From TrEMBL:
Keyword Aminoacyl-tRNA synthetase: no
UniProt xrefs under PROSITE patterns: HOTDOG_ACOT (PS51770)
UniProt KW keywords: Hydrolase, Repeat, Transit peptide
Gene3D superfamilies: Hotdog Thioesterase
Domain of life: Eukaryota
Domain HotDog ACOT-type positions: 97-218, 293-410
The encoding gene: LOC100802368
GO BP, sorted A to Z: acyl-CoA metabolic process
Entry keyword annotation includes Transit peptide: yes
Protein name: HotDog ACOT-type domain-containing protein
Region (Disordered): 25-44
Similarity section: Belongs to the acyl coenzyme A hydrolase family.
Length: 448
């Protein structure tokens, strides 16, 4: 079944777009109102599936692809793997979801932030859910006699906010597969919204690229995925660009931290000079600067079953959601004014996070830029650690880099506003700052 051509239930609109409804309007507790059994006899009720409690988008997506997700929840035992790879086009995986903010009050309130815009953290969670559904659709062979593949989020290439997203205007996300490797799939997503003036034409508000990898559900090893055949010049260009990014990731993978040359050693010393004054002569330190460690925040949580995905592991979108909320708070506490999100840089999901894991999120402001007084930049790093107290171990699961600026209306109300400069106290902190600055400069170069 194709989401855009042959709908099998009422979740999919006539035009091929999946509408999103508020969870309060559509979901009921299983014990209060058990869903009636359908013709399949033993179909698991939607309300009892894992991962159904955190996002209205996830509910809509799972309903729309219920036949595939049922197989993932209860795969055929001892079924053989897919014997022959299929060739699919990008249009076959193309999926849209629509947020009816203008007419659904409850949905609107679920996504509203204090500035009457969409909560970016919840949107990141939804993007991951949609990308996962698209990757499952691409990998499926539509056969009930073979065992389905497991697809997991491997990385997020970049998420860029191009304009503020109002919570009062209908919102649409469109995504499709743009590239596949042996076991990797890249999905491009675009968030569009019409202008507040009532312009009928939608404009892109946010772009994101997700990379998923496929695993055999029985062996856990990398599994080949269906081929992709771009149909037009634009799809071929997207495929080539994604191929180049994949090759670049391979050259960087497994590489150790680079050795700093003489010129860079001078940059390290210059960064450390002010930090040493803070440590050794704090009374003489620059009052327009602050130590990196003094910008840090931290929170911790036990990962709960309600946060798991269909494979029983913690949903990647949930991790991004929590990391964003901490990064936003860090930027807010640092600047003293409400921040405005700009982008998330490349994120690698280094190790899976399981139900019951003790997750610690640690954040800090790595550096600031004030070259453009109208848009000062705050770069926030969030590191997620999976901690096992009983084993006395702590491993990094993800490292996130968020860029923020200060909301113009907030800055206008505070005359003489200026961001403080962040300085390192240790060589390790100085290296992290320089590596992040160089990575951002490289991104700007390719973007130009």
């Amino acid at each position: 079944m194709d989401l855009n051509s042959s709908p099998s239930n009422n979740t999919i609109a006539v035009n091929g777009t999946i509408p999103v409804a508020s969870t309060f309007a559509t979901a009921t507790a299983p014990s209060d109102n058990p869903p009636p059994a359908d013709s399949s006899g033993d179909r698991k009720p939607i309300a009892l599936w894992p991962g159904m409690y955190h996002s209205p988008v996830t509910t809509a997506l799972w309903e729309a692809r219920s036949n595939i997700f049922e197989r993932l929840l209860d795969p055929p035992r001892d079924a053989p793997p897919q014997s022959e790879l299929l060739t699919r086009t990008p249009s076959q995986s193309r999926t849209s979801i629509l947020y009816n903010f203008s007419s659904d009050f409850v949905l609107r309130e679920q996504y509203r932030d204090p500035w009457n815009e969409v909560r970016i953290g919840k949107l990141l969670e939804d993007l991951d859910a949609l990308a996962g559904t698209i990757s499952v659709k691409h990998c499926s062979d539509e056969a009930s006699t073979t065992r389905p593949l497991i697809v997991v989020t491997a990385s997020v290439d970049k998420i860029v906010l191009k304009k503020p997203i109002s919570v009062d205007i209908d919102l649409k996300i469109v995504g499709f597969v743009i590239w596949v490797g042996h076991s990797s799939i890249e999905i491009q997503l675009e968030v569009t919204q019409s202008n507040e003036e009532g312009n009928d034409s939608d404009s892109v508000a946010l772009t994101a690229n997700f990379i998923f990898v496929a695993r055999d559900s029985k062996t856990g090893k990398a599994a080949p995925v269906n081929r992709l055949s771009p149909e037009n010049a634009h799809e071929k260009l997207l495929f080539e660009q994604a191929e180049a990014r994949s090759n670049l990731r391979k050259t960087k993978r497994g590489g150790e931290k680079r050795d700093f040359e003489n010129g860079e050693k001078n940059r390290l010393r210059a960064l450390l000079a002010e930090g040493r004054i803070f440590c050794d002569m704090p009374a003489l330190a620059d009052r327009n600067s602050i130590l990196l460690k003094d910008t840090s925040l931290e929170n911790a949580l036990i990962c709960q079953p309600q946060q798991r995905n269909i494979h029983g592991r913690i949903f990647g979108g949930f991790l991004m959601h929590r990391a964003f909320e901490l990064a936003f708070s860090t930027a807010y506490a640092f600047a003293g004014l409400a921040p405005c999100f700009l982008e998330v840089d490349h994120v690698d999901f280094l190790r899976p996070v399981d139900v019951g894991d003790f997750l610690r999120l640690k954040s800090c402001v790595l550096y600031t830029e004030v070259h453009d007084p109208d848009q000062p930049l705050i770069n926030v790093e969030v590191v997620a650690h999976v901690t096992r107290p009983e084993l006395r171990t702590s491993e990094v699961s993800n490292t996130f880099h968020f860029s923020f600026t200060v909301r113009p209306e907030a800055k206008a109300m505070k005359n003489g506003f200026k961001l403080r400069n962040v300085v390192p106290a240790t060589e390790e902190e100085a290296r992290r700052i320089l590596e992040r600055i160089d990575a951002d400069n490289l991104n700007e170069f390719f973007r130009a």
